[in-house]
């Protein structure tokens, strides 16, 4: 029997996040034929209570060791095992397109003689009566300068169709359901693959790019001639936050050219941006449009940055930053205990 | 170390514009996929310090003309141009003529970018590896030889973490060097190696539908 399958994305093998709900939303959207909706969850430690609440008709879950879970080869083997156990169901298989799942989906498409469309940003179904297999997939091409609309060449409804969805479009609210089938599939011994996980480490603030960091510190004209940046560096170490800055900071030689933030530099999308001694010109604000929370420190209460910030601190950075460092250290020690 | 680098001819995305009068993409300047060129640069850097033989392989439509001179400025040993009909129509099948060309060659390492700059599919290297029965690992930003046949590769995970893996050769590795395009990894042309160059290029024609 034909089904729509979601290969449920799991963060670090242990957490369901908005990508999982986003993929389920896409699955519901294309399931115009009301085919059975099945979730395949390959994880390394999700809590058992979650299985009965997932919004699928059927849930099949497989547990791998944490180190195996990080390798696509183990996912391919686990999928093949599930596929075999549940009776070689054919249909549409939706994956997230991060590297681990992308590799898994493409390799499976070869093994099952199916077709694959990768990095989709949307899926359109022509009308509610159309077969689910006749959907059109929207993709970005030429670095997002154009879109293309593609569809599977084969109209054979028994074929395997794999689609990987760009993580950028996978978001959604947590959903709940009552699956009629919840089945754990034991798979203890994936064959030792030729790729092995070794270790995972955090990139230090000095190497981390300002465009990739969760927290970024920005410095500006206010630091000019103000002496040592030792406290700011200490804050950067504590928060693992790379130091960028405004155009003026670059011109004053406070930061390297590739750390300039703004319309003439990089645009950042950090969770937290700490602007120190930055007035907040329109060009600089353009570069922090994607930031979720802004903390501004400036001695001028009329600085435009205070219109953009979530927390504003009026004062000299030489006074404020040591207090901020002490507060972060104090909070860190509380968290550690 | 016998290294193969897959190079895809693409239209430069930086030059492409939408022609509103003709309602089509225009200003399609031919070039090569930059992530692939970065893979080639990495191979050339490796060759400077280790014994290595580099072969570049590219697949084109029979009526598509490509200028390979920029590729021959790298210190490569061989260049294989595979001509395959209907490539643009059945682009996910690019891996098939590659499999035919590479299956009998003893490459230790096949390098490419993880994705091309035109279609961003990321399918060809993975399919090639699957057909050749060797591992594939994508989005790699650092490669370090651990021993003769085991290499260590690093991939970013999330915003600020790096995962390290060990991979047995032979393998296909897709690089994620695109971020370093304008800075660290811009190609360094070293001139034609003696006795190499255009004479090393030969075409292989595959029938339609391959």
Automatic annotation (TrEMBL), chain A:
Domain Electron transfer flavoprotein alpha subunit C-terminal positions: 209-289
UniProt-listed Pfam families: ETF_alpha (PF00766)
Gene3D superfamilies the record matches: HUPs, TPP-binding domain
Database matches in InterPro entries: DHS-like_NAD/FAD-binding_dom, ETF_a/FixB, ETF_asu_C, Rossmann-like_a/b/a_fold
Protein name: Electron transfer flavoprotein alpha subunit C-terminal domain-containing protein
Organism: Cohnella kolymensis
From TrEMBL, chain B:
Cited InterPro entries: ETF_a/b_N, ETF_b, Rossmann-like_a/b/a_fold
Domain Electron transfer flavoprotein alpha/beta-subunit N-terminal: from-to ranges: 17-205
PANTHER family: ELECTRON TRANSFER FLAVOPROTEIN BETA-SUBUNIT, PROTEIN FIXA
Entry protein name: Electron transfer flavoprotein small subunit
């Amino acid at each position: 029997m034909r089904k729509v399958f979601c290969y449920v994305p799991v963060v670090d093998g242990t957490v369901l996040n908005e990508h999982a709900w986003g993929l389920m939303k896409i699955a519901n959207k294309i399931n115009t034929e009301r085919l059975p909706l099945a979730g395949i969850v390959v994880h390394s430690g999700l809590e058992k209570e979650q299985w009965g609440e997932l919004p699928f008709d059927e849930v099949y879950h497989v547990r791998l060791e944490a180190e195996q879970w990080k390798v696509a080869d183990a996912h391919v083997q686990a999928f093949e095992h599930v596929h075999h156990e549940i009776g070689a169901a054919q249909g549409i298989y939706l994956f997230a397109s991060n590297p681990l799942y992308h590799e898994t989906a493409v390799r499976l498409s070869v093994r099952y003689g199916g077709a694959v469309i990768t990095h989709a940003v949307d899926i359109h179904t022509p009308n509610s009566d159309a077969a689910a297999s006749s959907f059109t997939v929207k993709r970005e091409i030429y670095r997002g300068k154009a879109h293309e609309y593609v569809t599977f060449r084969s109209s054979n409804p028994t074929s395997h169709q794999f689609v990987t969805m760009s993580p950028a479009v996978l978001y959604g609210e947590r959903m709940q359901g009552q699956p009629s089938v919840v089945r754990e599939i034991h798979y203890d011994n994936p064959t030792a693959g030729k790729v092995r996980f070794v270790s995972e480490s955090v990139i230090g603030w000095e190497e981390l790019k300002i465009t990739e960091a969760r927290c970024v510190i920005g410095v500006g004209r206010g630091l000019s001639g103000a002496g040592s940046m030792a406290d700011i560096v200490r804050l950067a170490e504590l928060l693992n936050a790379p130091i960028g800055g405004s155009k003026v900071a670059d011109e004053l030689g406070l930061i390297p050219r590739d750390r300039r933030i703004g319309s003439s530099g990089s645009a950042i999308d950090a969770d937290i941006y700490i602007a120190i001694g930055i007035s907040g010109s329109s060009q600089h604000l353009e570069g922090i449009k994607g930031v979720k929370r802004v903390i501004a420190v400036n001695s001028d209460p009329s600085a435009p940055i205070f219109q953009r910030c979530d927390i504003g601190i009026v004062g000299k950075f030489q006074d404020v930053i040591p207090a901020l460092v002490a507060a972060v250290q104090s909070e860190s020690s509380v968290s550690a205990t | 170390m016998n290294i193969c680098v897959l190079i895809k001819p693409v239209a430069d995305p930086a030059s492409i514009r939408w022609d509103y009068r003709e309602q089509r993409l225009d200003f399609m300047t031919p070039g090569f996929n930059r992530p692939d060129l970065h893979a080639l640069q990495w191979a050339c850097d490796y060759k400077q310090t280790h014994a290595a033989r580099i072969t570049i392989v590219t697949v084109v439509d029979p009526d598509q003309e490509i200028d390979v001179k920029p590729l021959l400025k790298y210190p490569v040993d061989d260049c294989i141009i595979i001509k395959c009909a209907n490539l643009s129509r059945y682009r996910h099948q690019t891996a098939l003529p590659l499999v035919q060309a590479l299956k009998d060659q003893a490459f230790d390492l096949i390098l490419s970018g993880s994705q091309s700059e035109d279609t961003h599919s990321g399918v060809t290297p993975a399919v090639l590896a699957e057909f050749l029965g060797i591992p594939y690992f994508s989005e790699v930003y650092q490669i370090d030889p651990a021993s003769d046949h085991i290499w260590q590769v690093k991939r970013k995970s999330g915003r600020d973490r790096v995962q390290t893996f060990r991979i047995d050769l032979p393998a296909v590795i897709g690089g994620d060097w695109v971020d370093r395009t304008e800075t660290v990894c811009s190609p360094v042309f070293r001139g034609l190696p003696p006795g190499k160059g255009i004479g090393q290029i030969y075409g292989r024609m595959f029938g339609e539908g391959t």
